[in-house]
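quick one, 355 residues, struct below
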Amino acid sequence: MRDLLLGTIRIAAALLTAFLLTVGVILLAHGSPMAALGALASGAFGTRYDIGNTLTKATPLLLTGLGVAIAFRARLWNIGGEGQILVGALAACALGAYRLHGLPAVVLLPLVLIGGAAAGAVWAGLAGWMRVARGVPEVISTIMLNFVAADLLSFTLHGPLQQTAGGSLPGYAEPLPPAATLPILVPENPLHMGFLLALAALGLVAVFLSLTPGGFAIRAVGANADAARVAGIPVERTQMAAMLWSGALCGLAGAVELSGVVGTLFGEYASGYGFTAVAVALLGRLNPWGVALSALFFGALSAGSEIMESRAQVSHDLIYVIQAVTLLVLLAFQWVRWQRRSAAPEEARPLAATP
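---
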């Protein structure tokens, strides 16, 4: 209970610090903080459409944030969410627009989403295998696989998946057919069924980490791999499973974003969600419910920035300042916490550090 209270206080302090520094940045740019922040809030929650837009932008952040959180809980630094999203979207496009085109929606749509999740799991599994079998740091392998995924996307869009309608259009794939598109939940609103899938994933991940042997193994390995091994937990197999689940959620996010929002792949396709997911997971303290609130916060920033730029003449890049400052303050608090723990007498230290 004490750790939860202290964690909440740290997050609140980080958000307050980010707010104050954001006000300072706006003033330095000769803007009006009240007008800019008011437009930001209005753009995120002003109307039913705005709320739907916020939830739509939070959907891939929730899925990728959960994926990153699972890996981080196993003390694996999966920085490859962006690449896993790309291969997930690529697999979904290949299945929906090419290989399985013509199947009814009740068959095609689940296969498209499952294919995206499977592709993301395979992509993260490569990094997991290199870590477990060869000792390659997953920070390096996941980052490098991001570039490989981007190059693979470019190759396929100028080759096997190149759009051929009306001759040829290099750099673009065929659009997904209606049967492979996620249905809209609210008429005249961008919110689609992927939001419900993200909520289902949230519940499943929360139950998995808290109430299942596999979730306990992940938490134990993350807390102390040597102690987990002594207790009989297969550390390498648990780490591999964590990377597979992490990649599957990121790949599913790519398929959901393609099927629910974008509709087709193109050469400059880059969501950025995979990198933002790291901040989402850390702000949520690697807790599934905290990740959900963090995803909503980042989704609101993204949705509101569009209105802020048009109404208050403040660049939407300001949201990156807010995100960066919030994360840096949280990391500063965590660093101070680690310093105090390392300076404490050994008998006074906790058995396992909380994330």
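The chain has one domain: 2-348.
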